[in-house]
């Protein structure tokens, strides 16, 4: 996300604007998650899921918002990217041979079975070229396009993966400077656009 976010920036993440995600298992609850340090309890907790639920927020992510989300390949890692496109819940997505692979993850996320046979797309066992999505999906891009791992690699991001909105830089420490000039005073409480 350079030059918007620099190495050494400590970010303020607003989890309320989009609505806070509720815990999906015991290890997601602060203080109670201490018990999951025990290997046996952690393994049992890994099999539990209460599903995805979110408290109502003030608004949904908009194009150009900087968001924090769980990586699609490694959910324990958080990524920061800018929203470039949105598919809203209830929108109809149209598939063809060229767009099928890039949009297949949406169908997989919504537990809709799909495959291609003889140049026809089958969704839930029927030849169909459109599907109405059940939740919001976001196409996210990094500001440094040449080196960014974003939706061009992993496809559309489901709303259930969004953690919150990056609002501002709390403070920043330059890892490449000597001891006396490490703190970046100009980035103190810097609002991100």
TrEMBL record:
Its main location: membrane. GO terms for molecular function: signal peptidase activity. CDD domains: S26_SPase_I. InterPro entries: LexA/Signal_pep-like_sf (IPR036286), Pept_S26A_signal_pept_1 (IPR000223), Pept_S26A_signal_pept_1_CS (IPR019758), Peptidase_S26 (IPR019533). It comes from the Bacteria. Keywords: Hydrolase, Protease. It is found in: Membrane. Gene3D superfamilies: Umud Fragment, subunit A. Belongs to the peptidase S26 family. This is Signal peptidase I. The lineage of its organism: Bacteria, Pseudomonadati, Bacteroidota, Bacteroidia, Bacteroidales.
